[in-house]
Write a structure and sequence with these properties.
Layout: H1 5-17, H2 20-67, E1 73-78, H3 86-100, H4 108-116, E2 121-130, E3 133-140, E4 143-148, E5 152-156, E6 161-162, E7 176-178, H5 200-218, E8 223-229, E9 233-238, E10 243-248, H6 253-269, E11 273-280, E12 283-288
Parallel strand pairs: 1-3, 4-7, 7-8, 10-11
Antiparallel strand pairs: 2-3, 4-5, 5-6, 8-9, 9-10, 11-12
């Protein structure tokens, strides 16, 4: 009874002085108070137990799980005919470790999506083979052009626009496409894998531009610049002889064959062309350079 202090002693004295009937009622009243206090303390203890079990412990377990990947062996592979440099592998491995050990609850699919942001990869596959090994396979995008959209961006041979080429030290080695995106106020949606969304007609033009540049490179006809002109098609400045060539629109294989014949004919004459137009059916218009 000492737990309740002086107040409890007063209640006991009152119980002694009261009649048996009143003492019974007071005793019941005190028992109800004790029951309520006991119930409340039990409820608080029960709530505290589940709070620890449902909130605190999962966080501790999650932190352990997030720290676990530090011990993972990360194996990085690339698609066929796509070699990754040691620097690219190190960069990808460091990004993976940061994401795996972040305080966010990320699964492998979410981590793959994060890695695709602001990257040069078309696809990233993450596969946890066991508790000690994580297999990573990447498919690289191979740019063949750069162009100014909302900022300087890459173009693949299939016409996909992606990334940001402003900070690339090697960007000037790629030919530049001009004349397609001319509205400085236009907004371009960016997809989750860092790809720029354009109209279907623009996508077709980009695909043709990428294909043309690859075909020219395969024929040792490299170009520094390719310009698209509406209703005329593509104009390329051939680097080897500084000749402007009008190719029109796709297909290009016959036009490139015709270009080889024209250049061979000019070489036999000892002449050089300033401009060659191949975008007319069955004909080639040539403007020769003055001696």
């Amino acid at each position: 009874m000492a737990f309740f202090g002086k107040k409890k002693h007063k209640n006991v004295e009152l119980l002694i002085k009261q009649s048996p009937r009143l003492r019974g009622r007071s005793r019941q009243h005190l028992l109800r108070k004790l029951s309520a206090a006991l119930f409340l303390s039990t409820l608080i203890g029960f709530a505290g137990y589940w709070a620890i079990k449902l909130i605190v412990l999962p966080k501790i377990v999650a932190q352990r799980q997030l720290r676990e990947p530090l011990n993972l062996r990360i194996l990085i592979d690339s698609a066929k005919n796509q070699l990754l440099s040691a620097g690219e592998k190190d960069q990808l491995r460091n990004q993976l470790i940061r994401l795996l050990n972040s305080q966010e609850n990320l699964n492998l699919q979410s981590i793959s999506a994060r890695l695709l942001r602001n990257s040069s990869y078309e696809e990233i596959l993450l596969l946890r083979q066991n508790n000690e090994q994580l297999y990573v396979k990447v498919w690289k995008r191979n740019p063949v052009l750069i162009t100014m959209v909302d900022t300087l961006r890459y173009i693949t041979a299939t016409g996909v626009i992606y990334g940001n080429a402003n900070e690339d030290e090697n960007k000037e080695k790629l030919p530049r496409l001009k004349g397609l995106f001319t509205d400085p106020n236009r907004q371009y949606p960016v997809s989750a894998n860092n790809q720029i969304t354009v109209t279907p007609s623009e996508q077709q033009i980009l695909s043709e531009a990428g294909a043309l540049v690859e075909m020219l490179a395969g024929e040792d006809l490299n170009t520094d610049e390719i310009e698209f002109i509406l209703h005329r098609g593509f104009f390329c400045q051939i680097a080897a002889n500084n000749t402007l060539v009008a190719f029109g629109r796709a297909p290009f294989s016959k036009k490139i064959s015709k270009l080889h014949k024209v250049l061979a004919h000019l070489a036999d004459k000892g002449a050089r062309a300033q401009r060659i137009e191949l975008d007319y059916f069955g004909k080639a218009f040539i403007k020769e350079k003055l001696p």
